[in-house]
Amino acid sequence: MSNKMTQEYERDFYAWALQSAELIRQGKFSEIDIENVAEELESMGSNNKRELINRFAVLIAHLLKWKFQPIRRSKSWTLTIKNQRFEILDLLEESPSLKHQIELKFNHAYEKAKIICSEQTGIDESELPESCPFNLDECLNFDFLPD
Fold it and tell me: Model's pTM, two decimal places?
């Protein structure tokens, strides 16, 4: 591992990333800061998982708002629901293995959704269902809106 590359990582991440990519393309593997490259790759995966969970939380929060405050339904809510579905599907298309992660973290996304819903509507979290009233397929179905 190159000490110079490690110093570059600490000094200027962007320059380090560009230089690392170029070294990989040139096959100069002995000059690559392997430890930090591996760490950044893991971090990218974690960021994608975190983004997926957050997008699901926003989606579920809006589905909850739709279900529990029918009088306040708006075009804005509809657009947010559609947008989150598109963004989630894009993430899953780019990284299909994330689907397994959301299946594991669906309850966590729901807990975050309850907080968001409560903050935005004034509905107490205790008044919302204990477990998510929508399944994964319903959440991703562009034709689904709860009644």
Answer: 0.84
Among 47, 147, 27, CA closest to 101:
47
Report the distance separating Cα 32 and Cα 95, nearest Å.
26
**Any residues with CB less than 8 A from the CB of 30 and at least 6 apart, and which?**
2
DSSP 122-145: ---GGGS-SS-SS-HHHHH-TT--
pLDDT 10s digits, 79-95 = 999 999 999 999 999 99
The per-residue pLDDT for range 113-137, each reduced to its tens digit, is 999 999 999 999 999 999 999 999 9
Q: What's the token pair of residue 83?
A: 């947008």
